[in-house]
Automatic annotation (TrEMBL), chain A:
It is an enzyme of class 2 (transferase). Its EC number is 2.2.1.6. Pathway: Amino-acid biosynthesis; L-valine biosynthesis; L-valine from pyruvate: step 1/4; Amino-acid biosynthesis; L-isoleucine biosynthesis; L-isoleucine from 2-oxobutanoate: step 1/4. Gene3D superfamilies: 3.40.50.970, TPP-binding domain (3.40.50.1220). The lineage of its organism: Bacteria, Bacillati, Bacillota, Bacilli, Bacillales. GO terms for biological process: isoleucine biosynthetic process; L-valine biosynthetic process. GO terms for molecular function: acetolactate synthase activity; flavin adenine dinucleotide binding; magnesium ion binding; thiamine pyrophosphate binding. This is Acetolactate synthase. GO terms for cellular component: acetolactate synthase complex. Keywords: Amino-acid biosynthesis, Branched-chain amino acid biosynthesis, FAD, Flavoprotein, Magnesium, Metal-binding, Thiamine pyrophosphate, Transferase. Residues 215-350 form the Thiamine pyrophosphate enzyme central domain. Binds 1 thiamine pyrophosphate per subunit. Binds 1 Mg(2+) ion per subunit. Its cofactor is thiamine diphosphate; Mg(2+). The keyword Transferase applies. It comes from Paenibacillus azoreducens.
TrEMBL record, chain B:
InterPro entries: Acetalactate_synth_ssu, Acetolactate_synth/TF_NikR_C, Acetolactate_synth_ssu_C, ACT-like_dom_sf, ACT_dom, AHAS_ACT, AHAS_small-like_ACT. It catalyses: 2 pyruvate + H(+) = (2S)-2-acetolactate + CO2. Pathway: Amino-acid biosynthesis; L-valine biosynthesis; L-valine from pyruvate: step 1/4; Amino-acid biosynthesis; L-isoleucine biosynthesis; L-isoleucine from 2-oxobutanoate: step 1/4. The keyword Zinc does not apply. Belongs to the acetolactate synthase small subunit family. PANTHER family: ACETOLACTATE SYNTHASE SMALL SUBUNIT, ACETOLACTATE SYNTHASE SMALL SUBUNIT 1, CHLOROPLASTIC. Dimer of large and small chains. Residues 6-80 form the ACT domain. It is an enzyme of class 2 (transferase). GO terms for cellular component: cytosol. It comes from Paenibacillus azoreducens. This is Acetolactate synthase small subunit.
């Protein structure tokens, strides 16, 4: 299957083949350096400023290059690959319009701390600053949305810069790093001497090991707490700390809520798990946060979608915040016990010290009571398809074991609510930026990372049309993604806000003019299926699962469905609209 | 409570580093009252001195956010220590010959210097802390200030620290 990335080679073999001292071009240095970093695949799109690089890739087979149909597709795919694999995602674009087409994807990765190395071409160094053809100051444009960036002025710096870029992207709080390479630099010749060049960055020393005194304070606080609660986020997954987290909960028996990006960090079937918190979180999670006397934030950033109105957030709780990024601590919520360090390291140090606090029994009972009284619920129907039902069906038929990527909107929230994740890196969604167009390309990247796993991409009919051109990539590379479209004929999430907050004034949300998605799929050579009721839905989905390649399944669902619970802007999170189901 | 803070930032002498630092202030909604950059005692490193206004929590965020920049080596809160802070201003002030003795009186009191004389004006150079320069400007205003250029503050902690 061509979706497969080249066989994993040992670094030794690669060194043998490519890593001898030699005078070569900047472009060849780039490719060899990428191999040295263990890169298996890159997503990209050529153009004038990167033609030397593409020339060097002619016939090059030691990593796979996927030609997407839009640079936005390339960077979201690299992002999906990184989130699914835990490795650094790589994408390449040309200068000017190619580079600016990456901006949304860079911001998406930055907001969600996803490690990417983004390579752009630029005009020749002699032309920089002259408004030359296809010149854009991409390092300047992306400065606020990258962890770091480089404009390479001398080909001799290239090996060091690439090595540093991978190091910066994948350590500490992860994030996208941009390398802008002028055309003459990619053409210039120099002696390439591969080395295991250790990184020497004076201003960059992420702190992994926490302060022991702070840990002791936390251990004591756990002993003293009557209503402790854990709020776990994406940092758990990024640090590889999910097993340590499980152990921590097992020892302490503290109830746990996981944020949107933290879904999969803790098994959803566990009785101490309360679901997601925040705007569309569970009643239990929100009430528990508000009633808690100790809130232990592990690798989450107190996003406003989680906290609601900050005046009145967790009013009774002593706040503990564990984060690798010191700047997150105290940024939104004043912290009583700050713990700076790598989540996994922190939890592994804590685990031998902690045990169950017995005075919290009444609290655990209260949590179970909330859970049974107020689960997620909706009014099912036998005449129209309900989107929540569709997600439940996906969950049941795949036993919660697929990798699910989503676009942004109501379908994203329903997928977060009704699909049950038990493993980390199985849930891929744009949380911080909320980027429509992310669903399909990120699924392509995730499938590249895990060719053997089932990857489902859940999209709205709106967002699907923002990167639908990438269906071509699924077809030609035979990437077996199952692309679900929850078609409610409107920009659903916007409709929901207009209904609830803007007094039913439905302004510009009608998606009239959408393509026939089945035909659209077929036009790209992808199988297309449509379902309008439960029986068709079960059949279509079964057929999709049995079909070896990519499939688009459109579920035509009821139009006016809303996501509940909902905390509206300005409310504290215990003030939830629960809907009428 | 909002107060004025003076921070020194030691940065790699890289193209774009001023943009990174000032961009961070803009994007995070921190205010910059003045910013100066120049060489430091170590080759390859520049020292920026930034004067900003904000409460303690904002100051803490500024420091932490600055440390996130890869090119930032060290952030020092100068105003939490006894420090020497200096600014330089050049002031071109209207000065008909009849008014000159009076203006010279102001200049001498402030230990400033006249660095240029035109037929109808004088250029005055003054060095000192921000309040001294503010005061000097106030006193020269009645004569008519034609041009004013201030450097912003540069500063250091006193003694052996
Ligand atoms: C690029 C981008 N533009 C606009 C938005 C604002 N937005 C958020 S949800 C939404 C509606 C999405 O509609 P659809 O894709 O049909 O999904 P649904 O909500 O109906 O499930 C919009 C427009 C966004 N998140 N991203």
């Amino acid at each position: 299957m061509s979706a497969q990335i080249p066989e994993v080679r040992s670094t030794e073999q690669l060194r043998e083949k490519w890593m001898k001292p030699e005078v070569i071009t900047g472009s060849e240095i780039l490719l060899r350096s990428l191999l040295l970093e263990g890169v298996e695949c890159v997503f990209g799109y050529p153009g004038g400023a990167v033609l030397y690089i593409y020339d060097a890739m002619y016939g090059f087979e030691d990593f796979k290059h996927v030609l997407t149909r839009h640079e936005q597709g390339a960077i979201h795919a690299a992002d999906g690959y990184a989130r699914a694999s835990g490795k650094v995602g790589v994408c390449i674009a040309t200068s000017g319009p190619g580079a600016t087409n990456l901006v949304t994807g860079i911001a998406t990765a930055y907001m969600d701390s996803v490690p990417l190395v983004v390579i752009t071409g630029n005009v020749a160094t002699s032309l920089i600053g002259t408004d030359a053809f296809q010149e854009a100051d991409i390092t300047g444009i992306t400065m606020p949305i990258t962890k770091h960036s480089y404009l390479v002025r001398d080909v001799k710096d290239l090996p060091r810069i690439i090595h540093e870029a991978f190091h910066i992207a994948s350590t500490g709080r992860k994030g996208p790093v941009l390398i802008d390479i002028p055309k003459d630099v990619s053409a210039a010749l120099t002696l390439f001497e591969p080395s295991s060049n250790a990184v020497n960055l004076r201003g960059y020393n992420p702190r992994m090991v926490p302060n022991k005194l702070q840990l002791d304070k936390l251990v004591q606080a756990i002993q003293d707490a009557e209503r402790p609660m854990i709020l776990a986020g994406g940092g758990v997954i990024y640090s590889g700390g999910h097993e340590a987290l499980y152990e921590f909960v097992k020892r302490t028996e503290i109830p746990i809520t996981t944020t949107l990006l933290g879904l999969g960090a803790f098994p959803s079937g566990h009785e101490l798990w309360t679901g997601m918190p925040g705007m569309h979180g569970t009643y239990t999670s929100n009430m528990a946060i508000q009633e808690s006397d100790l809130l232990i934030n592990i690798g989450a950033r107190f996003d406003d979608r989680v906290t609601g109105n900050l005046n009145g957030f967790a009013p009774h709780a002593k706040i503990v915040h564990i984060d690798i990024d010191p700047a997150e601590i105290g940024k939104n919520v004043p912290t009583d016990i700050p713990i700076v360090g790598d989540v996994k390291t922190v939890l592994e140090m804590l685990n031998p010290e902690v045990s169950r606090a017995d005075q919290a029994d009444a609290w655990r009972a209260q949590i179970q009571k909330w859970k049974s009284e107020q689960p997620y619920r909706y009014q099912d129907s036998d005449t129209v398809l309900k989107p929540q039902w569709v997600i439940e069906m996906l969950n049941e038929t795949t036993k919660g074991e697929a990798i699910v990527t989503t676009d942004v909107g109501q379908h994203q929230m329903w997928a977060a609510q009704y699909y049950k994740f038990n493993q980390p890196r199985s849930w891929i969604t744009s949380g911080g930026l909320g980027t429509m167009g992310f669903g399909l390309p990120s699924a392509i990247g995730a499938q590249m990372a895990h060719p053997e796993r089932l990857v489902i991409s859940v999209n709205g009919d709106g967002g699907m049309q923002m990167c639908s051109q990438e269906l071509a990539i699924c077809a030609i590379n035979n990437i077996p993604v199952k692309i679900v479209i929850i078609n409610n004929q409107v920009l659903g999430m916007v409709r929901q806000w207009q209904e609830l907050i803007y007094d039913n004034r439905y302004s510009h949300i009608d998606l009239e003019g959408s393509p026939d998605f089945v035909k659209l799929a077929e036009a790209y050579g992808v199988k297309g299926l449509r379902a309008t009721n439960k029986e068709e839905a079960r059949q279509a989905w079964a057929e999709a699962l049995e079909t070896p390649g990519p499939v688009v399944v459109e579920f035509v669902v009821s139009k006016g469905e809303n996501v509940y619970p909902m905390v509206t802007q300005g409310s504290t999170i215990d003030q939830m609209l629960l809907g009428d189901a | 409570m909002s107060t004025r803070h003076t921070i020194a930032v030691l940065v790699n002498d890289q193209p774009g580093v001023l943009q990174r630092v000032s961009g961070l202030f803009g994007r995070r909604g921190f205010n910059i009252e003045s910013i100066t950059v120049g060489q430091s005692e170590e080759t390859g490193l520049s020292r920026m001195v930034i004067v900003t206004v904000g409460d303690e929590q904002t100051l803490e965020q500024i420091e932490k956010q600055l440390y996130k920049l890869i090119d930032v080596i060290k952030v020092i809160n100068l105003s939490s220590n006894p420090m020497v802070a200096r600014e330089l201003a050049l002031i071109k002030v209207n000065a008909e010959p009849s008014e000159r003795p009076e203006i010279m009186g102001v200049v001498e009191t402030f230990r400033a210097a006249v660095v240029d004389i035109g037929s109808h004006n004088l250029m005055v150079q003054v060095v000192g802390d921000t309040t001294k320069i503010d005061a000097m400007i106030e006193l020269l205003k009645p004569y008519g200030i034609r041009e004013l250029s201030r450097t912003g503050v540069t500063a250091m902690i006193r003694g052996n620290v």
